[in-house]
Amino acid sequence: MRQYYRHRPAVLAVGFLTVILPFLANVFGLDNGRVSLRANRPRASVRGSNQGALEFLGRWGYGPAKAVEVSGQQAFLGSGTMLLTLDTTDPAKPELLGQLDLGSPIAQIVKRDRYLFVLCSNLVIVDVSQPAAPRRVADWGTAERIFKMRLQGNYAYLLDVWRGLTILDISQPQNPWLAGRYSPPESCWDLAISGNRLYLSSGPLIFITDISQPTRPIYLASYEKAVYSIAAAGTYLYISAAAPFGGPNSLQVLDTSNPEDVRLV
């Protein structure tokens, strides 16, 4: 037994290398002095010199498509860090019109008039009045991590898990400005808006707020329900409910007309 423990650090080190080396080989590639990043992410390429310094050569921005927005006969797709504008006149053969590298993986796209509001860790506003040449016109929150976004009237509601809700005035999309903030009772991951109601989900709880004054949300009530995502229409809240004991999730509809007495439809 003592002999085993004496050599245990070496055994653990060998085991660690056995696991980590194949992983590194999958993530990083080496070819003729160049190192490239692989896996499901935008690819970067660098070159090493004899002195050990790394020189940035370029980036392949395409990657997993996690966001899409459709408007008329145009579609806007986030592919890795690339924002693509597509002509969908023939849905069977979408035609690429233009593209713009935003530098971070794109998570959500919402179109308002001639502008796209794009989440890629921060908020980027893009003018797509000329689809072949999308133009970045504004940024917000470069130091924040925004997870979800909803637009309502002249305001954008941005949800950051740690900072809470940020409310921007977007009446002038090229110059958004901070209109208000709201800190929910708990860290929240999802939000939905319908009329004067704003709903926030922390996972085990749903918080109902009044936004009759858009920049000053007022807490109304909470409802205990484990959910993954939420959407709102009228006074109804549609939730992806988490089933207990690892069972399948389900779609449930809640009537929130009386925030103090939320009922399952």
Write a structural description.
The structure is a single chain. The chain folds into three domains: 2-59, no CATH class; 61-143, Lipocalin, CATH 2.40.128; 145-265, Kelch-type beta propeller (Neuraminidase). The chain is mostly beta strands and 265 residues long. A hairpin with a 2-residue loop joins strand 17 (190-194) and strand 18 (197-201). The chain starts with a helix and ends with a strand. A four-stranded antiparallel beta sheet has the order 1-2-3-4. It has two helices and 24 strands.
Topology:
Layout: H1 2-6, H2 8-27, E1 28-31, E2 34-37, E3 43-48, E4 54-60, E5 65-71, E6 74-79, E7 82-87, E8 95-101, E9 108-112, E10 115-120, E11 122-127, E12 135-140, E13 146-152, E14 155-160, E15 164-169, E16 177-182, E17 190-194, E18 197-201, E19 205-210, E20 218-224, E21 227-233, E22 236-241, E23 250-255, E24 263-264
